[in-house]
C-alpha cells in the first residue's frame, strides 16, 4: 500500500484529502498532521485523512508522497524536520502561494535522493481551516507545478497526476515566473482587500458606514478575512514583485483621483476598459488552451506509476508527458524573450 | 386605484417592481418606462410592472408615486421632463447612489406642490439590467431615505413604507451625510475594483496572469463589471468625498508597501486588524439597532395612507414616526459634534 502524508490539514490540505478520496485513489493510506490537533481530528472526521499523526516524523514515516500545506514560512520548518526522516525516492510537494523561496529551501534542506516539486493550486476561499474544506475546491482550476532544477521528470509527473486527480489542470512554471504572475492576480488583490478594510474601519464613522456597507463592500473586502499569517508569509517571500504591483496600483488610483477631480470623458473610458477586460476574463478567454489540452488526463495515463498497482506499463507515456512539459517551458521562454 | 411609475427598469427598478408585487400591495397599478424599450418589455414579462409606457410623460401621468431608478446624472433629465406633468401632491423618489446633487436638482426643478424624497437602497449586484432582477434583492438591507429641506413628513413616511414593503430597513440621513458615508463603503470599493483590473490587465503578461487568476481576483474585481455610466455618474456627483477616500486608500497602500519592504511584525498586525474589523462587520455588529427596531413595520402602520384604502386612521401614528425620525437625526448630529 502507498502512503500519502498531508502536513497541515487546513482548508487546502483537508480539501486535497477529500478530493483524493472522491477520485477513488485506491490502495493509498492518507495520514494527516496539523500543529493544531483539532484540525487534524476534524479532517479525519470529514474523511479527508485515514489517520491523524501527532507529529511530523510520525506522519511522514514510510510516506511515498508528502504534501506540505502550511503557510509559506512554515514550509521551511516542515522540510527541516521531515527531510532527514523520509525514505529515499520520496516525493515532497507543497501548496504554498509563493515558490522561489520554497524551491530554494527544498534544494538546500532535502537530501538529494528526496525529490521536491513545488505546487500551488489556484483555488481557495477566505474561511481558513478544515471546516471550509470541499472535495471540489480544485475542480477546473489551474494547479501550478514548479519543479526545482534537479527534480527528476518522474517526480514532476507524479505531482501533475496528483493535480489531475483532484480535478485541476497542471500548469508548469519556473519559480520566478510563478511568483511574478501570482503577485499581480493573487497577492495584489489580497493586500488591496486588506488595505480597503483598514482604510474605512480605522475611522470614527465606521460604525455608521458599516451599516450601509453592502454586497459590493463584502466582495471587494473578502480576502481581508483570510489568515493573517499566510498573508504575511506571502508578502515576505515575494517582496519585490508585490512592491512592484503595489506601485502600479497606487499609480492607477492616483490617475482615478485625477479623473474624478477633472470630470471628463476619461473616467468613463477607464471604467469601460476595466469592465471589458474583466468580462473577457469571465468569459474564459484565458481558459485551457492547446498547450494544456494535449496533456493526458489521469484516466488516460492511469495513476499506476504513482499508485504502484499494475506496474509501470505507461512509463513510455510518462516520458511523453515530460517532453511536453519541456516543450511548454521552452515555448514560454521564447515568448518572453 | 393608485398608480406607481417606475422610470428605469434596470436591475433596481425591476427588482423594486418584483418586490412590491411580492409584498402583495393591493389596488396599485405599476407602470414602467425605460429608455431601452426592451428593458421595460422584459420587466413586464417578469411581472415587475403591469404596463410599459413608451415615454416618461406617458408613464408619470396620474401617478401618485414616481420612482426614478436611473444613473445619477439622468435623474436630472427625468425630473425636468416629469416635473411639470405630475399631479399636485405626487411623491417623487429616486434610487441613485449619491444624494446631494439629486436633492438639490429636485428642489430646483420640481414644482413646490410635488414632494421629493431621495432614496438609496443599499443592495445591488454587478449584472446590470432587468435580467438580474430579484424580488428579494432588498431583503434585510438598509434603505437610505434622504428628504429635502421642504419635504412634508407624510411624504417621507410614504417612501419609508415603500422601503419596508420591499423588505428593507429605512435609514434616515441628510444628503451630505449620506454621500460622505457611502463614498467610503460603496464608491471607494467601486473605484478600487476597477483600478485593480486596469492595473493587471494593461500589461503584456495579462494573458498568462489571467489564467492563474482565481476566486480571490474574481471577488475583489467584481464591481469592475458594473455599468460604467453609473460609475462615472457616481464619481462626478460625489467628487470631494471620493477624492478624500482615494487619498486615504493610497496612503494605506503606501504603508503596506513600506511594511512589505521592511518585513517586520507590523505587516501581520495590519492584516490581523483588517480581518478582525471585517469579521466583526460580517457578524453584524452594525445590524439594525434600537433606533430602527422601534420603527413600525408596514403592517403595523398600514399602507392605508399610501394605498388610500380605508382612510387615514393612522395619521397619529404617522406623526409619531416622523417624531422618531427627527429624534434619530438629532442624535446623529449630536454624536457627530
Query: Unreliable segments of chain A (pLDDT under 50, ≥5 consecutive)?
Result: 288-322
Number of domains of chain A: 2
The number of helical elements of chain A comes to 16
- CATH fold label of the largest domain in chain A: Rossmann fold
Strand order of the largest sheet of chain A: 3-2-1-4-5-6-7-8
Indicate the CATH architecture of the largest domain in chain A: 3-Layer(aba) Sandwich
Give the overall shape of chain A.
elongated
Structural class designation of chain A: alpha/beta
Question: How would you name the CATH homologous superfamily of the largest domain in chain A?
Answer: NAD(P)-binding Rossmann-like Domain
Number of distinct beta strands of chain A: 8
Distance between the termini of chain A: 46 Å
Mean pLDDT over the full residue set of chain A: 86
CATH uppermost class of the largest domain in chain A: Alpha Beta
What report would you give on this structure?
- The structure is a homodimer of 337-residue chains.
- With 337 residues, chain A is of the alpha/beta class.
- Chain A has two domains: 2-173, 3-Layer(aba) Sandwich (Rossmann fold), CATH 3.40.50.720; 178-282, Orthogonal Bundle (6-phosphogluconate dehydrogenase C-terminal fold).
- Helices cover 55% and strands 12% of the residues of chain A.
- Chain A contains 16 helices and eight strands.
- The first copy, chain A, has helices spanning 11-22, 37-46, 56-60, 72-82, 100-109, 153-165, 175-201, 206-212, 215-220, 228-236, 239-262, 266-282, 290-293, 298-301, 304-307, 315-336, and strands spanning 2-7, 28-33, 51-52, 65-68, 91-94, 115-121, 142-147, 169-172.
- Chain A has an eight-stranded mixed β-sheet with strand order 3-2-1-4-5-6-7-8, sandwiched between helices.
- In chain A, α2 links the parallel β2 (28-33) and β3.
- In chain A, α4 packs parallel to α5 and α6 (153-165) packs across α16.
- The N and C termini of chain A lie far apart (46 Å).
- Residues 288-322 of chain A have low confidence and may be disordered.
- Chains A and B meet through α7, α8, α9, α10 and α11 of A and α7, α8, α9, α10 and α11 of B.
Amino acid at each position: 500500500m502507498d502512503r500519502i502524508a498531508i502536513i497541515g490539514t487546513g482548508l487546502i490540505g483537508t480539501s486535497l484529502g477529500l478530493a483524493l478520496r472522491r477520485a477513488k485513489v485506491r490502495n493509498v493510506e492518507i495520514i494527516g498532521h496539523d500543529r493544531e490537533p483539532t484540525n487534524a481530528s476534524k479532517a479525519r472526521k470529514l474523511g479527508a485523512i485515514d489517520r491523524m499523526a501527532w507529529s511530523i516524523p510520525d506522519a511522514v514515516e514510510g510516506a511515498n508522497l508528502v504534501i506540505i500545506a502550511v503557510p509559506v514560512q512554515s514550509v521551511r520548518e516542515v522540510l527541516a524536520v521531515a527531510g532527514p526522516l523520509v525514505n529515499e525516492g520520496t516525493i515532497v510537494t507543497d501548496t504554498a502561494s509563493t515558490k522561489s523561496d520554497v524551491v530554494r529551501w527544498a534544494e538546500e534542506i532535502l537530501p538529494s535522493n528526496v525529490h521536491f516539486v513545488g505546487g500551488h493550486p489556484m483555488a481557495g476561499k477566505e474561511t481558513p481551516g478544515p471546516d471550509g474544506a470541499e472535495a471540489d475546491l480544485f475542480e477546473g482550476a489551474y494547479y501550478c507545478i514548479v519543479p526545482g532544477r534537479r527534480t527528476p521528470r518522474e517526480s514532476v509527473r507524479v505531482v501533475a497526476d496528483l493535480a489531475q486527480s483532484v480535478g485541476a489542470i497542471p500548469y508548469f512554471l519556473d519559480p520566478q515566473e510563478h511568483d511574478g504572475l501570482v503577485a499581480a492576480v493573487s497577492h495584489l488583490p489580497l493586500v488591496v482587500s486588506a488595505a480597503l478594510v483598514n482604510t474605512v474601519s480605522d475611522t470614527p464613522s465606521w460604525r455608521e458606514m458599516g451599516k450601509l456597507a453592502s454586497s459590493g463592500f463584502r466582495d471587494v473586502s473578502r480576502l481581508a478575512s483570510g489568515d493573517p499569517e499566510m498573508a504575511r508569509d506571502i508578502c515576505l517571500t515575494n517582496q519585490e514583485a508585490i512592491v512592484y504591483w503595489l506601485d502600479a496600483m497606487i499609480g492607477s488610483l492616483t490617475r482615478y483621483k485625477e479623473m474624478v477631480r477633472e470630470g471628463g470623458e476619461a473616467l468613463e473610458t477607464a471604467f469601460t476598459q476595466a469592465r471589458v477586460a474583466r468580462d473577457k476574463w469571465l468569459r474564459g478567454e484565458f481558459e485551457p488552451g492547446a498547450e494544456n489540452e494535449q496533456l493526458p488526463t489521469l484516466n488516460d495515463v492511469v495513476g499506476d506509476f504513482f499508485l504502484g498497482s499494475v506496474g509501470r506499463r505507461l512509463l513510455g507515456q510518462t516520458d511523453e508527458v515530460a517532453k511536453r512539459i519541456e516543450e511548454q517551458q521552452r515555448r514560454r521562454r521564447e515568448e518572453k524573450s
